[in-house]
Amino acid sequence: MTTTTATNVPCSTAAAVTIRRATPADAAAVHALVLAIAELEGDLEHVQVTVEGWQDLLGRDDVTVLLAEQRGHALGYVSATRRLHLWSGTELLAVDDVFVREHARGYGLGRQLLIAMAGTVAAEELLVVWGMEPDNTGAQRFYRRLGATLRPKVLAGWAPAAYLPLVHGENSEENR
Predict the structure, then answer these.
(1) Among candidates 119, 102, 9, 109, which has minimal Cα distance to 64?
(2) Could you give the CA distance from residue 50 to residue 48 in angstroms, rounded to a whole number?
(3) Any idea what the CATH number is for the domain that residue 106 is in?
């Protein structure tokens, strides 16, 4: 992947911002950014991956994390996984998070991160998908300006505590 450089992000000396693929050596920086977005969204208790876990994840071919840095400091990131889309028989890129630290927002960095992520699959022309909360109208406007198509869809999550009793035959009439 090529490195993208931008100069429109604030810094006392207007230093360039570099967007590059994170490596296992960046695990601590990625972990800190994940904790920052989780705290912002009120989901800190749901973050279970550790720095060591990020070292493993960042070494996987199906995981892509791009960091936006200025003078070695992480300003933001975008993360995604490749996965098979069964209806098309091809892979797609599922963006998980797009996050820019508060002091670096408003300068197009989120846009640059998403465009750089799309660039990682442009040669293959893969579909790029992601989700957002229905009430996050600011994100919806941002994604529409990028040319993304938005459509409502309800996602279901099935936690082990809910499905294990059914799997183990502990289901009763009230669970059907």
Answers:
(1) 119
(2) 6
(3) 3.40.630.30
